[in-house]
Specification:
single chain; about 90 residues; mainly alpha; 434 Repressor (Amino-terminal Domain); 5 helices
């Protein structure tokens, strides 16, 4: 039985918790919109230059990065399993 991926990443949950837009979070963290968007969607890790700002917001940057990386890996693992099932089905 496949595990389901949480619909929101830990970074997306952070946005919701703080009630911020991507642009607002980027400004608060001293990052570009694109850096935050890429991190939100698992395209890159959140840059370390945001660590001090995250701590000021009451968040542990290492914990956030660890949970985000786990979300990305879970999502990728589930997608690989889905593809493998499709390939096996096509070969049957």
């Amino acid at each position: 039985m496949l595990q389901s991926t949480p619909s929101r990443s830990p970074l997306q949950e952070l946005l919701a918790d703080l009630g911020l837009s991507v642009r607002d979070l980027a400004e608060a963290l001293g990052l570009t919109y694109q850096q935050v968007w890429n991190a939100l969607h698992g395209q890159q890790s959140l840059p370390h230059k945001a660590d001090a700002a995250l701590r000021e917001l009451g968040r542990d940057p290492d914990d956030l990065r660890t949970r985000q990386a786990a979300w990305v890996e879970l999502r990728a693992s589930l997608r690989r399993a889905e593809i493998t099932g499709q390939v096996k089905g096509a070969l049957a």
